[in-house]
Amino acid sequence: MADSHEEADVVVVGGGIVGVSIAVHLQMRGRQTVLLDRQGPGEATSFGNAGLIQREAVYPHLFPRNLGDLLRYAGNRTPDSYYHPTMLPRLMRPFLGYWYHSAPDRYLAIARNYARLIAHCVEDHMTLAEAADARRLLRPGGWTMAHETETSLAAAVATAETAWRDFGVEYRALDAAALAQEEPHLRPGLAGGLQWTQPVAVIDPHALTLAYTRLFERLGGRVRIGDARTLARSGAGWQVAAEEGAVTAEQAVVALGAWSPVVTKPLGYDPPIFVKRGYHMHYKPDGNAGLNHAVFDVANGYMLAPMRRGIRLTTGAEFAHRDAPPTPVQLGRVEPAARRLMPSLGTRVDPAPWVGARPCTPDMLPIIGAAPGQPGLWYDFGHGHQGLTLGPTTGRLLAAMMTGDVPFTDPSAYRPERF
């Protein structure tokens, strides 16, 4: 480390979409901010995902409570879920809480609190993308769930109708002919689809994070490479080690996603974060084949999303140690299904599958607010499957809290003290 010293109002540790969004909003509010991570912005979990700003995602992923589903997942052979057996003892504590909060009455209350964030996600992204000159990376039009059976489609429409009635989520039900017209390169014989019309697709999530980072720098923010594990109190403020030297600030924010507990545990906060890892691979479709929207295969639990690099195949949830070597079992399970759904999927583009770690909480809500017992320290992590969706929204919320402004919604449901 260089023998120098840098001062700021705030240091944000975590260079993913959440940390970058926090830093932008703080800089917009006149707080001189340093953004620090061990690598470049957006190079970890924010690098790979389905690339959707999911306005429809008012119902977070719940823990299965049906005995048949539990037995099916316990067999560890499903395409949408896979676990490392050695992880089961570590998962008992968070899974018990996850199961508890997935009870219908508790889950409905959680969905209401979740929806208060989700409702703002598209507008908040559009605001930052406009300021960052990155609207070209966003493609309105929603995404589609492809159903193999009429029964499955009818159940999805019923859920969508409830989401519309309770949370203003918009959708279109597509019969077989309408789905074929929307996505002519999917195989024939599907029952139909359900199209969520409000979400916005991101054709290159990493590029979007970099665009927001450039906006942050244009506003006067500074990006540093450093070791978040060195974050510690320094007098009345906080200090962290960077390659250029120590950074000190009056306030600090931990936004390290799945790696947040590495920093918060030594500071007395050890939330029951658990990790759902996910994989992706890109494909070069045959001829002029392609997709007009991202398509989710309901029967097999994966998504095909059109990206700059090709068609991105994303997997479901792998329960493994956050830093374990990649084990792309699910990719091997779903790739044949993806080729059946889209026969023109084509050849693999990437030399190896990408893997990322989603930080999840037992009650399915992110952790946002002041750190218990640590004046000047703030947390914003635990977004589960919706880090890309909610980064600008929770960044705006936290920035308002940190600067003493009235937040756009009551943040008490996301307070760190609940764990």
Largest sheet: 9 strands, mixed
Enumerate how many helices there are, as a single number.
11
CATH architecture of the domain at 1-62 and 103-140 and 198-272 and 363-419: 3-Layer(bba) Sandwich
The general outline is globular
How many whole angstroms does the radius of gyration measure?
A: 21 Å
**Poorly predicted spans:** none
Give the distance, in angstroms, between the N- and C-terminal Cα atoms: 35 Å
Mean pLDDT: 96
Helix content: 25-40%
CATH topological fold name of the domain at 1-62 and 103-140 and 198-272 and 363-419: FAD/NAD(P)-binding domain
The top-level CATH class of the domain at 1-62 and 103-140 and 198-272 and 363-419 is Alpha Beta
CATH superfamily of the domain at 1-62 and 103-140 and 198-272 and 363-419: FAD/NAD(P)-binding domain
Strand content: 25-35%
Summarize the structure.
By secondary structure, the protein is α/β, with parallel strands linked by helices. Helices cover 32% and strands 28% of the residues.
Write structural notes for this entry.
- Helix 1 (17-28) runs parallel beside helix 8 (205-218), helix 1 runs parallel beside helix 11 (387-402) and helix 5 packs across helix 11.
- The strands form 4 sheets. Strands 6, 7, 8, 13, 14, 15, 16, 18 and 19 form a 9-stranded mixed beta sheet that branches. Strands 1-2-10-11-12 form a 5-stranded mixed β-barrel. Strands 3-9-5 form a 3-stranded antiparallel beta sheet.
- The longest helix is centred in the middle third of the chain and has 18 residues, at 150-167.
- Strand 11 and strand 12 (245-254) form a beta hairpin.
- The chain has a domain at 1-62 and 103-140 and 198-272 and 363-419: FAD/NAD(P)-binding domain (3-Layer(bba) Sandwich), CATH 3.50.50.
- The protein contains 11 helices and 21 strands.
- The mean pLDDT is 96.
- It has helices at 17-28, 67-74, 88-101, 104-118, 121-131, 150-167, 176-182, 205-218, 260-264, 329-341, 387-402; strands at 5-13, 33-37, 52-53, 81-83, 138-140, 143-147, 171-175, 192-196, 200-202, 222-234, 237-242, 245-254, 274-284, 294-297, 302-307, 310-314, 317-319, 347-348, 354-360, 367-370, 377-381.
- The two termini are 35 Å apart.
- With 419 residues, it is of the alpha/beta class.
